[in-house]
Amino acid sequence: MRRSATLLLAGVLLAGTAALPATAQAASRDVSAGAPRPVVFVHGRNAGPGVWGALTDRLVAAGTPADRIFAWSYDSSQSTNEVLAGRLAAYVDDVLRQTGADQVDLVAHSLGSLPTRWYVKYGGGAKVRNWVSLAGPNHGTSLAWACALWDQGCRDMTPGSYVVSRLNEGDETPGDVRYTTFWSAGDGQILPTSSTALSGARNVQVADMGHNDLLGDPDVARQLLATLAAP
Predict the structure, then answer these.
(1) How far is residue 7's CA from residue 76's CA, in Å, rounded to a whole number?
(2) What is the pLDDT of residue 34?
(3) Closest residue by Cα to residue 7 from 171, 194, 149, 155
């Protein structure tokens, strides 16, 4: 589902479906031994925590306590490496303090894949068990050129950007973190769609669907839950 890189499209490029309920919120609780790892969701460009409503409901239905599910909210027009990765690091530390856990699982959509990868690769890897990217521009997307002139998040997503180049130099999947990506040939906003897959990761091609459809697709949710539940 290719679209022209017009200014109109740039306004909604890689945005999430913000109409979903914002149910994935942080809560401070005492935890018992053996509780599930906290899950931290990270949305994409021009989106917010509400995009995770469907996946949050599925996690809860599968037995994850609601107070182990978090959603980081951030300004997606800011710098991945100079600003956002540091703020994510502070957020993860706060989640670990609240829950008493040693590690979190990071689940990112679209642009959210870049600050989460930067955090994991440059300092936070020991605090992360699973890193999961849904439709992430892990090697850039040519569509981001449409808004790169005025938006730092878009510039970070362009092929060959400083952020993309640094993330992919050397080992694309460093450390003991379990890396998983989900991508669709029908994405339409990650161009080329092969951009999402990473060397050393478990790369899962799902049925043809739109960029934001991965957030609510039942089969994607089933595979994501199985990934997080693996020992």
Answers:
(1) 18
(2) 72
(3) 149
Strands 69-72 and 128-134: unpaired
* Residue bearing tokens 């050397």: 170
Alpha-carbon 124 to chain mean position = 15
Residue-wise DSSP of 168-194: HSS-SS-TTPEEEEEEETT-SSSSSGG
Pick from 227, 50, 213, 41: nearest CA to 135: 213
Does residue 23 surpass a pLDDT of 90?
Answer: no
Dump pLDDT digits (tens) for 39-75. 999 999 999 999 999 999 999 999 999 999 999 999 9
Global pTM reads: 0.87
Which residue type sits at 103?
A: Q
Rg (CA), the chain: 16
Q: Which of 216, 148, 210, 158 is nearest to 184 (CA)?
A: 210
Residue 104, burial from CB neighbour count under 10 angstroms (0-12, 13-18, 19+)? buried
State in Å, rounded, how far the first CA of the chain is from the last one: 37
- Please name which of 31, 40, 111, 124 lies closest in space to residue 79, comparing C-alpha atoms: 111
Residue count of the chain, please give it: 231
